[in-house]
Amino acid sequence: MEHVTFKHKRTTLERADKFISSHHFTDINLRSRLYPEKQPLVSIQHYATPDRIPYSQAISQTFKDTQVGHSFGPTWSTHWFKVELEIPKSWHGQEVHLLWNSDSEALVWIDGDAIQGLSGENERISFPLREVGDGKSSHSSNGRQIVYIEMACNGLCGCGLNGLINPPELKKCFQLKQAEVAVFDRQVYKLLLDVEILHDMAKEMTEDTERGYQALYTVNRMINECTVGDSSSYQRAQKIADEFFAQRNGDSQHTIYAMGHSHIDTAWLWPYAETIRKCARSWSCTLRLLEKYPSMTFTCSQAQQYEWVKQHYPSIYKDIQKFVKSGQFIPVGGTWVEMDGNIPSGEAFVRQFLLGQRYFQQEFGLKCKEFWLPDTFGYSAQLPQIMRSCGINRFLTQKMSWNIYNKFPHHTFWWSGIDGSRVLSHFPPGDTYHMMVKVKELLYTLKNFRDKGRSSRSVYLYGYGDGGNGPTEEMVNKLERMENVDGLPKVKMSSPDEFFSNIEQKEEKNLCTWSGELYLEMHNGTYTTHAEVKKQNRKGELLLRDVEFLATIATVLSGTSGSGYKYPSGDLDRLWKLLLLNQFHDVLPGSSIGIVYTDAHEYYRDIQKTGNQLLDKSLAAIAQKGDNSVVVNTLGWNRREVISLTKGDKSPSRKKIKTGESSQQVDHKGDDLVYCEVPSFGISEIPQVDIPAPVTVNQTESGIQLSNGLLSAVLDNNGRIISLCNTSSPQVNLINADYPGNQLLIYDDIPLYWDAWDVMDYHLETRKLVDNVTQKAVILDKGPLRVTIQVCLRISEVSHIKQEITLDAGSPYITFKTQVSWHENRKFLKVEFPTSIHSNKVSFDIQYGFIERPNHYNTSWDSARFEVCGHKWADISDYNQGLAVLNDCKYGYSAIDGILRLSLLRSPKAPDADADMGDHEFTYAVMPHQGCLQESGVIQQACNINSPLIIKSGNNLTTCSSYFTVNTTQVILDTVKLSEDSGNKMVLRLYETYGGSTTAEISTIFKNITVQRCNCLEEVIPDERFLNVTSVGDQQTQITIEFKPFELISLLITF
């Protein structure tokens, strides 16, 4: 007489769990029969190397015998194994696997080709030697065979000492735990998957769901039917499962678009060089699955990683090309790397897309339609326009699910940038990009989806990331099994294009819009961590911009001068790729281990050295060799400012050709100071002009008084600003009467977990003044061209600050050249400028424009932005006046109640224990102004600080040349470069910077040119809007063009 199952859900569930467990009852349960027969390897031989060497070099080395149980290290070393195996004849007709578990990452090589990755951490330890019954070719036949295995001495996420994100344990060893061949029972394997799915449905579905109980009793019946070791009982159990899974969903059920994925950080807790091998290990696994499952798809971003695999693993790359063509291996993103979403300049963003899209077009004949950036730390409000100008109108990320104060309100929506450009955006509601294909994940995806009723579909990205070898066969099989099962969302193997196209065709009119930045309420310490990386990034961006401008001019002029100069396309391409590589979203933010920054700074030194050589060559092709110096202005407006001439600079100034005593000065370092004027995008010999008014300094008991006819200030003996006024309004002190400006501050900076990443809201409660003055303010330079005041302070017993506070003749701002010896532990250095200005908002410089943020904490969304990202300036203004803080290499700001703070240095200890330790030098400035931001000149002055006039000796010019001018400060000509595809075309990139419509006139000395609108990929685009090109006399051509607010426009000019 049969017994009816008790209504004891817990015991029935646990029974099913133990039946397939890999930890309990493994001598008798179903899992124990997955590999029913095993045999040791014939032999294992080993060769160790500290380097990552190619296969051809490795197999020529001397291998020595080793065995299971031995350990291998240290961290980052490589161990090659020569494995001899034999498949017994008695196993004929059965599926046979090689089982290898070195508790680390590894790669199987056969006949010189990388075949498949292995990973002990996620139990991917099986390599199929022979598969049967599916018509697929095998990697082995009966008899002996040699297999090589390349073992990397690191885990999936490096080797953090006593914690994931801790600095690596450099002496770690990894044990070879398993090495054998085994028979694989696929019938048992399929049954294991069905039991797991049914168990999980019973466990995860709510108590009031009938389907969950149906799953519970079905899996219980299957176990009752099974006799472990009896294949006929497996068939009966399988039939029970088939009946359950045959019950289908309704038409209205939510559809999950499943896409294989393996997010691989280009560097993070491992160096760049290890990423190359991670790509090979993961992508080779995926290729084997794509061969076996034609319906499977795999999405993969980052052109840099494709290029690495092409160079180092040509057989893998050949297979990738095949599966890209079939539509299974899908390039996504369109960028060179998955870069940081806040810190890169606008032009760097453009180059990410330009180089990425060109790579995918050249290699695979396609351009990506979607921007793929799932793991960066916030997203600039200018990205939608840049994306659309690079042929992309779709966007995917999931990082906003990490918010810790406010839950983002959408998963599928329109994202609108500061210019109004919109892109269709989707955040996979599973809140991760490495799903493991669990019932719990499918149910959570549906439950968490915040656009129910507006949309009935979402993306599901599955697979191990960061070297975990991507999707597994188990994941693919479970997705197939759950394709259309009553009680679960529908599952569809799909592609990004199919998903977004279905949204566009059926649901786009239902979607909401989010305007402005996507601010991540975490990881805002990354605006500041590894300050030298940020500094070199800014310097690199600007240097390559300058090189391109001068190289373009030299190229155009060479057509008439016959100088033979050739545009250095190859060098610039290489340098841009190095810079873009270092903008990866764990390198530029400062959240990688120390060894990554050894590589990063090597690349930065290369950029500076080679970039400056290219700049000198291009300038030499423009100016003649001679005895004088020339000064170069790479910005789009005339500049009058003080420059410093060292003893090596030959100029009229050093020949004592002067216009008056008021326009000369030797500073405290012995250098000549000259007040000069240089035209827009121009080159000239150093012309000396009269200063508008001398700068004066007067030390009194109340402080040090500075004035230059544009502003006046009073400093105390600590170098703090007590008073700051525009000369036109001397009665209005823009500094708060109760709190001085240039107040240096130190905060405790201990986050909840993510050390290099996070600065927490509570750090603001630990504010302490840096007021231990070791040298009171001393006047070093007294004018008339420059006043310099020096002050020194002690932060702690181990950290010190020296500042040179400077006001130049004709300058609207005071600069603070700051040197810091920094040796703190989890402290945060900032400088603040409390203002007397009342305004509800503060403006911050971003890519190709600015963004306004609240100057208050009214809502949780406002208070969450207690630390924000900005570029060269931040400004608080009312209708009549304002104050801006400028900088040459910083990105972190905060603003509240009229106080502007600039973040200077952090000192986290993980994952790099030495992050930011050492000496730093940077400059910031404070600029009072009349009128609103747009009238103030703040934007131009911030550019001036970041792009100082370039002085080069040993050149002569017959005439002063201005190659481009723009008739309005509302439009900035940001980039002048040669076209990627033509030697007789140049690209101009301009943007409207005030946030309003205008018409601009761009004048150039180049004649007989044609002008076309193009996108950021340098493809000509039709545009019916006004664009006019006219000749002005015999000397100039004028281009007239209309701009919308914050619009980015690229022009392709044929010369």
Q: What attributes does this structure have?
A:
56 strands, 6-stranded antiparallel β-sheet, 9-stranded antiparallel β-sheet, elongated, 1055 residues, alpha+beta
What do you see in this structure?
- The protein is built from 19 helices and 56 strands.
- It is α+β, with helices and mostly antiparallel strands and 1055 residues long.
- The strands form 12 sheets. It has a 9-stranded antiparallel beta sheet.
- Belongs to the glycosyl hydrolase 38 family.
- Its EC number is 3.2.1.24.
- It is an enzyme of class 3 (hydrolase).
- This is alpha-mannosidase.
Radius of gyration: 32 Å
Measured by DSSP, the beta-strand proportion falls in 25-35%
Strand order of the largest sheet: 34-35-36-37-46-43-42-39-40
Instruction: State the total count of DSSP E strands.
Output: 56
Report the structural category: alpha+beta
Low-confidence sequence ranges: 655-661
Helical fraction: 10-25%
Mind summarizing the main beta sheet? Answer: 9 strands, antiparallel
Distance linking N and C termini: 95 Å
User: How confident is the prediction overall: mean pLDDT?
Assistant: 95
Number of helices: 19
Shape: elongated
InterPro entries: Ams1-like_N (IPR054723), Gal_mutarotase_sf_dom (IPR011013), GH38_C (IPR041147), Glyco_hydro/deAcase_b/a-brl (IPR011330), Glyco_hydro_38_C (IPR011682), Glyco_hydro_38_cen (IPR015341), Glyco_hydro_38_cen_sf (IPR037094), Glyco_hydro_38_N (IPR000602)
EC number: 3.2.1.24
Catalytic activity: Hydrolysis of terminal, non-reducing alpha-D-mannose residues in alpha-D-mannosides
Protein name: alpha-mannosidase
